[in-house]
Design a protein that fits this description.
single chain; mainly alpha; Growth Hormone, Chain: A; 2 domains; two-stranded antiparallel ribbon; about 0% strand; transmembrane; transmembrane helix
């Protein structure tokens, strides 16, 4: 068993965010989107690409690939979390997804236009590795921290992630901006080297939490049935409990809708900026670095405000800011407007992720033993939201030929989430709640 609130354990757990956030920054947010958009935009075909005989808008294809990855994981994770709870081997699954994601990033070193199909597949596999690792990492939160410390510990994890990813990003930044310092003549080499470094960083630093976190306690009292059926029966059991808990149910409904907006913006923002503003790799990296640096105090600020005013009140404020960002994003026409938008997004990005994770953890029943199953339900909720958000974003761009309309559509998701948060606050006022 893990001793709760142990500083070494918490610090080691936080290093998993340090390790895998490099993927989130370099692959989904900066260098990969810029590199991908540039090499898939040609004089002959514009922004259209051929993928196994079918033509797509380049940014739509990458968003469809991510949407597919999240959809697959939404169905696979319940099964795996059930196995992990039963066998007590969730750290083994963390390792599997980490190595798969890291290896896929290493494989992206070979990404050029003539390897587009294989590279898109590796891009999707890297996303799956990240998604799977995060689920099993999240499930440790209620085990390593008592309820009163979960906001702080969750924020610590995100802060480690931002710091670690920024350090690697700066290293990659040197290769991309100053290739002549290293005698690099091939313009495609610095981005591809960055993908290789992400894989090595991800796998390497993950050894810190792997060396400290336990595998879990096998639950021998569970009836051994078909694992595929059992995985979804675990979700069904969790949903049965959730339905009886008005506050937790209300939060999950809200989380589902605002996650469509938050996660889609995080995954598609770089492609939007490159396509509409032509920022170029250097400026795009600088913008994302600003976001990451601002996100660190942002996560801590949200944790502080939650103690003062309550988690739900802070989430309402943050979702309102996200709606404003969507509207502002539709109208931006120059890089300076994008910089100001990036600063606001950075401030609220880490905060809403960190606070959402700790809010859910706090709402769980005190005697919960199947934390992996509960966090699997949380992750499936998020993944299905991402699938809908990314697919909508890509489909609207394909349909209209204007990526700005996709941004406005995201605002509607935030509005629905906001409505449910307001309803949740009223429920909390009528009935005793944890927060």
């Amino acid at each position: 068993m893990i001793t709760k609130n142990n500083k070494k354990t918490i610090r080691s757990w936080a290093f998993f965010d340090w390790a895998n956030s490099a993927y989130n920054l370099v692959i989904t947010s900066t260098i990969f989107p810029a590199y991908y958009t540039i090499i898939t935009t040609t004089k002959e075909h514009g922004d259209k690409v051929d993928f196994f005989g079918r033509t797509f808008v380049n940014t739509s294809l990458s968003n469809y690939a991510l949407s597919f990855a999240y959809l697959v994981m939404a169905f696979v994770l319940p099964i795996l979390s059930s196995i992990a709870d039963r066998r007590g081997n969730k750290k083994s699954f963390m390792k599997f997804f980490t190595y798969m994601g890291g290896a896929a990033c290493i494989g992206l070193y070979f990404f050029k236009l003539d390897t587009l199909e294989m590279s898109i597949i590796l891009f999707a596999l890297a996303a799956m590795g990240y998604i799977g690792g995060v689920l099993f990492s999240n499930s440790y939160l209620p085990e390593i921290a008592s309820e009163e410390h979960q906001d702080r510990v969750s924020a610590q994890g995100f802060s480690y992630g931002y710091i670690g990813s920024v350090i690697l990003q700066l290293i990659c930044f040197l290769f991309v901006l100053k290739p002549e310092w290293f005698g690099i003549a091939d313009a495609s080499f610095p981005p591809r080297l960055s993908f290789l470094l992400v894989g090595l960083w991800w796998i390497g630093f993950s050894q810190i939490p792997f060396s400290v976190l336990h595998d879990g306690t096998p639950q021998h009292d569970k009836v051994k049935t078909n694992i595929f059926k059992d995985g979804f029966s675990e979700l069904s059991k969790v949903w049965t409990q959730v339905k009886e808990m008005k506050v937790l149910k209300g939060f999950l409904v809200s989380y589902f809708f605002y996650s469509m907006g938050v996660q889609t913006i995080m995954l598609a923002a770089a492609g939007f900026a490159e396509k509409t503003l032509k920022l170029g790799t250097a400026k795009l990296i600088a913008v994302i670095l600003i976001i990451q640096l601002v996100a660190i105090p942002g996560a801590m600020l949200m944790s502080f405000l939650a103690k003062k005013t309550g988690n739900i009140n802070v989430l309402i404020m943050v979702v309102l800011l996200w709606i404003g960002c969507c509207v502002y994003g539709y109208y931006i026409t120059n890089e300076y407007q994008f910089y100001s938008l990036a600063a606001i997004v950075g401030l609220i990005m880490g905060g809403i992720q960190s606070l959402s994770r700790s809010t859910y953890s706090k709402y769980l029943p005190v005697d919960t033993k199947d934390t992996t199953s509960f966090f699997s339900f949380y992750d499936v909720t998020e993944k299905l939201a991402i699938v809908i958000g990314l697919f909508s974003f890509a489909y609207i761009e394909d349909l209209t030929g204007n990526i700005r309309y996709s941004i406005i559509a995201l605002a509607s998701f935030f509005m629905v989430g906001l409505i449910f948060l307001v309803i949740l606050r009223k429920i909390e006022r009528k009935e005793p709640a944890k927060l």
